[in-house]
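Ticket #4471: structure export looks truncated?
Reporter: QA, pipeline team
Priority: medium

Steps to reproduce: submit the single chain below to the structure queue and open the exported record.
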Amino acid sequence: MRKAIVIALAAVAATLPTFAGDAAADTSLGAGVHYLRNLGDIEDNGFEKGSISVLGSLQFGVSMLKLEADLEYMFDLMGTDQGAWLPQAYVLVGGMIYGGLGIGTVEYDGEWSNDPFYNLRAGVELPLSAMALDLYATYQFWNDDQLESLTGDDLDSITFAGVLRF
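Actual output as written to the record:
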């Protein structure tokens, strides 16, 4: 499954230059904060339901279609006192109000996850003169035997993020 994530991220990266030539005005860099709330009863096993992360984002778009690559760092994965890296790729459709699908993986404790997680995303991008404020929520589908064996519960999560785009 790690191969599928690498292929998805490579496909986004390979496609971004073709978008860039036609859509320089629709190209943005962003930085923001992301809050993850686990839906399972992982607290019963000594884990925390909430985690906060920071993220960097690169987005290209043509008309109503956008491709996005994110790199996120979670300071404390589920209360384990271990940081985690979460690279992700998205295909988004819409304008000011949008939705889309994404795929990502997680690196924690020096190990990459065997299985990807998938995202359903809905958001609104508010123009602020030369910048924009991107507010969105995702539903993350986690199917990771390594993490699930630690918590003993479903790892599906709802997340909320705010990204300032330049």
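Status: closed, not a bug. The export was complete when the record was re-opened. Leaving a note from the reviewer for reference: Helices lie at 2-22, 145-151.
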